[in-house]
Amino acid sequence: QVQLVESGGGLVQSGGSLRLSCAASGRTLVFSNYVMAWFRQAPGKEREFVAAIGWNTSRYSDSVKGRFTISRDNGKNTVYLQMNSLKPEDTAVYYCAADTTFSTVVKGGRYWGQGTQVTVSS
């Protein structure tokens, strides 16, 4: 089992920045074995893939490419999402997910966090 806990959400003005964190834990966790991802879900909308990172590869949705950066610290069992140039349409609950391959995590990983709210005001 892998437990994921997100933090760092909040209220920010349009054009501002936030950094989300997702800390992973588990009795037998080997964090570096997992592909980590961020998803988001806005009210009334379906969950949307945002970004994913493996050992040395990352992927982004077109809607955030160039503005968001995903990174990981395997020593701290943590994945980050640096969000710059935020727009009101980025407002959503952001979730962290984990799975063992890119193909599975981008479809919705096996493990999920509880989410953190990001609100961007215009």
What does this 3D model show about the protein?
The protein has 122 residues and is mainly β. The protein is 3% helix and 50% strand. The chain has 1 helix and 11 strands, in the order βββββββββαββ. It has one helix at 102-105; strands spanning 3-7, 10-13, 18-25, 35-41, 48-53, 58-60, 68-73, 78-83, 92-99, 111-112, 116-121. It is globular. It starts with a strand and ends with a strand. The model has no long low-confidence stretch (mean pLDDT 96).
Short description:
This protein is mainly beta and 122 residues long. The protein has one helix spanning 102-105, and strands at 3-7, 10-13, 18-25, 35-41, 48-53, 58-60, 68-73, 78-83, 92-99, 111-112, 116-121.
Number of strands: 11
Which percent bin holds the helix content? under 10%
Unreliable sequence segments: none
The average pLDDT score comes to 96
Helix-strand blueprint:
Elements: E1 3-7, E2 10-13, E3 18-25, E4 35-41, E5 48-53, E6 58-60, E7 68-73, E8 78-83, E9 92-99, H1 102-105, E10 111-112, E11 116-121
Parallel strand pairs: 2-11
Antiparallel strand pairs: 1-3, 3-8, 4-5, 4-9, 5-6, 7-8, 9-10, 9-11
Give keywords.
122 residues, mainly beta, seven-stranded mixed beta sheet, 1 helix, globular
